[in-house]
Amino acid sequence: IYIHGLGGSVKNNTKAKELEPLFTEVFVPDYPKKMSDAIPFLKGYVDTMQKMHNEPVVVIGSSLGGYLANIVARHYEIPVILINPLTDPDAMRQFPDSFTKEDIDTLKANMPPDYVRGGLMLLVDSNDEILDPSVALDKYSSQGVCISFMNGSHRFEHMNAAIPYIGEFVETVI
Prior knowledge:
five-stranded parallel β-sheet; alpha/beta; 174 residues
C-alpha cells in the first residue's frame, strides 16, 4: 500500500508505478484531506487489504504519507518504508492553505511510538528542500535500515536506485 503525500494523488502516481515490479499489486488509497478522517480511513483500508489478500502487507509512504504510513504500520505491526517522511507535524504549518491546527493536533496525538515491530526502512534525498533529511535520519537510524541518496529533492528522484534496496528489505521482513 503506497500512501502519497500532501498534494499527491492516486492518478499517475509515479512512485507507486515504480514499485509495481516488487509487489503482486500496489494499492494507492485516496484518503480524506482532514487528518481526523484520514487516519481511521487508512487504518480501515489496511485492515481490509490484510483480510482480502492472503499475503503480507507492506505500507510505504512519502512526506505526509510517510507519517501516516508509520502510524498505520505501527498500529498493525507490519513493515513500513518511509520516503522523505514528515517527522514533526509542526512542519505542516508552512502549508496553511492545506493544513489546519486541528490537522496538526491530530497528527501529534497519533504520533507513532519509536519502537517498530514489523520493520522499518527510511529513504531520503540529501537535498530535500521541504523536510530536513537529517531529522529523519536522526529519528530512525536506530530503528531500521536508513539510506540517504546524494542530492535529489523532496520529490525523491532516486526511486529507481532505491528499488533493489526496497526489494532486499521486503524479502527480509516478510
